[in-house]
Amino acid sequence: MKTKININADLGESFGNWKMGSDSEMLSLVNSANLACGFHAGDPLVILRTLEDAHKHHVGIGAHPSFPDLQGFGRRPMQLSEAELEAILFYQLGALQGMAQTQNMTLEHVKPHGALNNMACADIQLARQIVNAIRTFDDQLILLAPACSALLIAGEEAGLRVAAEIFADRAYQDDAQLVPRSEKNAMVHGAENSYQHILKMLEARAIISTSGKKIPCNIHSICVHGDNADAVNTAKYLREKLQANNYALVSLKKMF
């Protein structure tokens, strides 16, 4: 029997005349797309076109909300009140949900972006605030959260369906957090290296840090960052190798 796994990517991150990634190609390869909602990237036309492509390729869609940080691509930490955080999440989820309805699509999941995600992975109070906002908006949404993170724990505590993800193109520290992008060993480069990176974790059912430490966890989804120069080649290679290795690639809904 084949083991189910999901491949996701962060997409819809262009803005105006500024282009990020190769969304159309990525949407032919992944199972789930996390769409920027305009606060770190994306604009109404980019969102609409990405939704149209996702619909054409039968790709599940989810919101990729962030701090209001267009200039910093959502990667700068911010301190917001709980009320303001809830409001910006409602605003972004509502915008994407409304646009999705015009394409006869519905949101399947939510995956916080950038600094918001990284901070919630380490801060259980912030993680619970995010989870409470998601649950209030729609308690049927799947939370896509990094494996072994406080965000994943908060989602499970709240009774949401939680999909644990690992990153094909990012390295891990011994505490299961990502190596900061400012460090030279933060990224995993090349399709084969990315495949070996995730295969070791899938087989061990654990995050494996740069030091070799194994942190046991469930794994439901693999993220390939759409802004990585190797993204298309990596996604294509992972898809082919995983299928050849007896994995069934499915949507997040079919993981549960």
UniProtKB/TrEMBL annotation:
Reaction(s) the record says it catalyses: 5-oxo-L-proline + ATP + 2 H2O = L-glutamate + ADP + phosphate + H(+)
Enzyme Commission identifier(s): 3.5.2.9
Biological processes annotated in GO: carbohydrate metabolic process
Signal peptide: none
ATP-binding among keywords: yes
MF GO annotations: 5-oxoprolinase (ATP-hydrolyzing) activity; ATP binding
Top EC class of this enzyme: hydrolase
Keywords associated with the record: ATP-binding, Hydrolase, Nucleotide-binding
InterPro entries linked: Glyco_hydro/deAcase_b/a-brl, LamB/YcsF/PxpA-like
Subunit structure: Forms a complex composed of PxpA, PxpB and PxpC.
Family from the record: Belongs to the LamB/PxpA family.
NCBIfam families named in the record: PRK05406.1-3, PRK05406.1-5
Free-text function comment from the UniProt entry: Catalyzes the cleavage of 5-oxoproline to form L-glutamate coupled to the hydrolysis of ATP to ADP and inorganic phosphate.
Protein name: 5-oxoprolinase subunit A
Species assigned in the record: Polynucleobacter yangtzensis
